[in-house]
Design brief:
The chain is of the alpha+beta class. The chain has a single domain, classed as 3-Layer(aba) Sandwich (Glutaredoxin), CATH 3.40.30.10. The protein is about 40% helix and about 15% strand. Strands 2-1-3-4 form a four-stranded mixed beta sheet, with no helix packed on it. Helix 2 packs across helix 5. The longest helix is centred in the first third of the chain and has 12 residues. The chain is globular. The model has no long low-confidence stretch (mean pLDDT about 95).
């Protein structure tokens, strides 16, 4: 089972949808806006992917909150992502025991089409 987490109007999430739809791969979508992920879920993710990868430091929310100036430790990063899911790099895809963060068509082909 494939679960995609993100925001439906995010360009990277749209590209992921397009990839899965073009290859007739079924998935479930969880929208951060209507079903926010909590601290426990983000902690689980952090055991499969680094927080450096999960935390979107290039996004508007990160800059607006001026988080760079706070020198966040790992626990702080998880807390902020739980409070503001828009800080999570998108999409986050749970597949089997894997966690895939971001959109990378080459990576997707290797994982989902092999």
């Amino acid at each position: 089972m494939i679960t995609i987490y993100g925001i439906k109007n995010c360009d990277s999430v749209k590209k992921a949808f397009q990839f899965f739809n073009e290859h007739a791969i079924n998935y479930t979508f969880i929208d951060f806006k209507t079903s926010p992920v909590n601290h426990d879920k983000i902690t689980q993710w952090s055991q499969k992917a680094s927080l450096t990868l999960l935390l979107n430091t290039k996004g508007t929310t990160y800059r607006t909150l001026d988080l760079k100036s706070l020198s966040l430790n790992d626990s702080d990063k998880i807390e902020w992502m739980a409070k503001e899911n828009r800080l999570i790099k998108r999409p986050v895809i749970e597949y089997s025991e894997n966690l895939i963060v971001g959109f990378n068509p080459t990576q997707y082909e290797g994982i989902f089409l092999s």
